[in-house]
Amino acid sequence: MTAGALMNVYLIVLPLVGVNVSAKSELIGGTCTNVTSDIGACIAAGGTLHLISQNRKRNRVEMARLRLARETHRLLHYVCHDEALRLGHAVMGEGAGVRSAFPGSGAPGPAAPRPAAPRPADPAGPAPGQGPEPQ
């Protein structure tokens, strides 16, 4: 048995069976318990802070890895544009109304404005102030 186990027997079990334990022994045992509890709390808090720190560091590394993967993908599409199209990859930016990330690659540029749809002719003619003025 360890010293801590013997102290627990002396301070907990013996008083339960009717053996008198001195107040000084209880005070020493209580102090040891408090110190042990405080040390455990410090270890737990330090471990938690360490885990938080490691998680933040890991998150920064993963974000850098993701940026690198995205940039590599974008550059591969830029360099091997025709091959990417042949493999069925969509042109980056196509259909979103944004400029292509690949100037000079044959990818579509900015979305052209659509022409206004013609209005149906009004049988009564143009409204006053609109359309050609009589001469």
Give short descriptive properties of this protein:
135 residues, 57% helix, elongated
Short description:
This protein is mainly alpha-helical. The chain is 57% helix and 0% strand.
What structural class do the secondary elements suggest? mainly alpha
Distance between the termini: 117 Å
Query: With helices defined by DSSP (H or I, 4 residues minimum), what is the helix count?
Result: 3
Shape: elongated
What's the multimeric state? single chain
Low-confidence stretches: 95-102, 107-112
Biggest beta sheet attributes? none
Give the radius of gyration. Answer: 40 Å
Quick check: average pLDDT? Answer: 74
Summarize the structure in words.
The protein has a domain at 3-86. It is built from three helices and no strands. The protein has helices spanning 3-16, 23-79, 81-86. It is elongated. The termini are far apart.
